[in-house]
Amino acid sequence: MAERQERAIRTRESILEAMASLFIEVGYEAATIAALVERTGLTRGALYFHFPTKEAMARGVLARAVTREGILPQTHKLQEWVDLGLLLAYRLPREPMLRAAVQLSVDPRARGLFGTRWPDWIDLGEDLLVEAKERGELLPHAVPAEIARLAVGAWTGVQLVTEALPDRLDLSEEIARLYQLILPNVASIGVLAKLDTSPYRAERLLGPAADADAAGKPLT
């Protein structure tokens, strides 16, 4: 029984990964079940057993978008908030599921059908910023809800522009610059000097996972 459940979980994951790749390559509207059948080698019945519709697959991809993976407890909550954005910037080019989730979030057709996960990212960021405010890490005028909302919008804009530019700037470096512009306007002076906004911070936080990714090898 346990083996069967594990096999079902692996199959479900492989379906989501294959569909995520299709969403990235051709967009939500053009991604078809026929193409998914060809890519996975599964029958339509097997696909529909796990996901009854393409929309359900898209929702499954979006469900993986919001994560605190890699975020470790820090002396300052504001650092954890920065880490949230830096980690996403590092992982996005390397993880098709995340890339597909972002693409679905900006696709008008997909967004009209099942919305986006941006509100969840905003809520996650706001929770950290509220704690930072309570600890005196933010300037008196800084409003956590506003910072969280505008930061997610700015992050998304940077990602889309970076991807579209012909010279393909490094997303981690661009997001690091974004935080370097935002923080002096919201962080208290004493905390600001202690924050790490290096574009290499996410790689250090992920540790062995990042090393394995860079080497193209699975973790053992």
Q: What is the name of the CATH class of the largest domain?
A: Mainly Alpha
Strand residue content: under 5%
Low-confidence stretches: 211-220
Architecture (CATH level 2) name of the largest domain: Orthogonal Bundle
Radius of gyration: 19 Å
* Global outline: elongated
- Quickly count the domains: 2
How many helices? 13
- The tally of strands reads 0
Helices and strands, in order, run as HHHHHHHHHHHHH
- The N- and C-terminal alpha carbons lie at a distance of 26 Å
What composes the largest sheet?
none
Q: Class by helix and strand content? A: mainly alpha
The name CATH uses for the topology of the largest domain is: Tetracycline Repressor, domain 2
The pLDDT mean sits at 88
Helix content: over 70%
Describe the protein.
The protein is built from 13 helices and no strands. The protein has 220 residues and is mostly helical. The chain folds into 2 domains: 62 residues, Arc Repressor Mutant, subunit A; 139 residues, Orthogonal Bundle (Tetracycline Repressor, domain 2), CATH 1.10.357. The relative contact order is 0.12. Keywords: DNA-binding, Transcription, Transcription regulation. It comes from Streptomyces ruber.
